[in-house]
Write a structure and sequence with these properties.
The chain is α/β, with parallel strands linked by helices. Helices cover about 35% and strands about 15% of the residues. It has twelve helices and ten strands. It has helices at about 30-40, 60-65, 85-90, 110-130, 175-195, 220-230, 250-260, 275-290, 300-305, 315-320, 330-335, 345-355, and strands at about 20-25, 45-50, 70-75, 95, 135-140, 200-205, 210, 240-245, 265-270, 275. The protein has a seven-stranded parallel sheet with strand order 3-2-1-4-5-6-9, with helices on both faces. A three-stranded mixed sheet has the order 7-8-10. Helix 6 packs across helix 12 and helix 8 (about 275-290) crosses helix 12 (about 345-355). It is globular. This is Dihydroflavonol-4-reductase. Keywords: Oxidoreductase.
Length: about 350
């Protein structure tokens, strides 16, 4: 089954081939798929990258453009430069703001690596939108971590499942800093949006994105997630953790659907299925066999509490997430955007095959 919105029949007042479309951070994991789909359908695409001299990071986009019906322009733009987006936004009627850091591991300075580029980047892009009078709609890529930080965030709420009405109130600079960055950035986006009335906005909150990449230079933290299930990091066992998962291509399509529909505004959770690490590991083991050290069991909460730091889990994270049930409601994205979700098992398999094909398993 395929997604049911026809890309050949866009709303002429929103996503229109007569006007260029801007995609910030267009060489990213999800954004590359978004750019590909738009190019294949004949749109005029402008993409921002951090460094135009590093052609390896966006060469895959120029190759896609060469064999597509659309056109592509590359602009250099630093999220922390308030004037960086003026030129590339002129004449655009839709802006997809996808540029934002996404690091799960190896974070040394969360303020500098996550918070500043997320928050200041949001301000700089949306203030440029305020000055670009051609822009009618903004599609803002947020994350599920702006909805909740820990599984226990649901405690005390009336609902049993997380939905678009919820905001992450548990993350901070020291605990789940990525979720904190996503939350403050999205809140700032809504503050700027609500202070004006010319342009509309939809924010998309995807869960962990799985699937193949269009480039082997992708720096998405999702690759670390799958890689660690196969490289022996968790050979002794995985925590009893549940994650919302979604195919990256479904997320890219959802961005287009949100841009095409004039009435698609507000927040949209993008998740297909909640799975435990062990469930996902068992599926990958079935597909790839004994060649890799996939985990076969779950570690006890007690063991993780005392030794979790060796696996990158703080004691607070263990207490608030390990062994806790997780439910996520994707009704709005299915009913209002028309997203039909692909099986996440297939996306995980394709992602690991991509990792192996490009010798990315260390």
């Amino acid at each position: 089954m395929t997604n049911n919105l026809d890309l050949n029949e866009p709303n002429p007042n929103i996503l229109c081939r007569d006007f260029p479309v801007l995609v910030t951070g267009g060489a990213g994991f999800m954004a590359s798929w978004l750019v590909k789909y738009l190019l294949d359908d004949g749109y005029k695409i402008r993409v921002t990258v951090r460094d135009m001299h590093n052609e390896d990071r966006y060469r895959h986009l120029t190759k896609i453009a060469e064999r597509s019906k659309g056109s592509l322009e590359i602009f250099e733009a630093d999220l922390l430069n308030p004037d960086a987006f003026k030129g590339c936004m002129t004449g655009c009627n839709v802006v997809f703001h996808t540029a934002s850091p996404y690091k799960i591991t190896g974070i040394k300075n969360p303020q500098k690596e996550l918070i500043d580029p997320s928050l200041e980047g949001t301000r700089n892009v949306l203030e440029a939108v305020n000055k670009a009078h051609s822009v009618k709609k903004v599609i803002f890529t947020s994350a599920i971590s702006a909805i909740y930080g820990d599984a226990t965030d649901i405690d005390g709420l009336e609902e049993e499942s997380f939905n678009e009405a919820h905001w992450n109130k548990s993350s901070n600079l020291k605990h789940q800093p990525l979720g904190f960055a996503k939350t403050v950035a999205e809140r700032e986006a809504w503050r700027i949006h609500d202070a004006q009335s010319r342009w509309k906005m939809a924010t998309l909150n995807p869960s962990l994105c799985l699937g193949p990449s269009l480039t082997n230079y992708s720096q998405s933290g999702s690759f670390d997630f799958i890689r660690q299930l196969a490289d022996g990091t968790f050979a002794s066992g995985v925590p009893d953790l549940q994650h919302g998962l979604v195919d990256v291509r479904d997320v890219a399509h959802a961005h287009i659907f949100a841009a095409q529909d004039e009435y698609a505004t507000g927040r949209f959770l993008l998740v297909n299925e909640v799975m435990s690490l062990l469930q996902l590991s068992k599926f990958l083991h079935k597909k790839f066999g004994e060649e890799f050290d996939f985990p076969r069991k779950e570690l006890s909460s007690r063991m993780l509490y005392f030794f979790g730091f060796t696996k990158g889990f703080s004691r607070k994270y263990v207490m608030e997430n390990v062994g806790k049930p997780l439910k996520i409601d994707n009704t709005r994205s299915r009913n209002e955007l028309g997203v039909y979700y692909k099986p996440v098992e297939e996306a995980a398999e394709e992602m690991l095959r991509f990792i192996l094909d490009y010798n990315m398993l260390k």
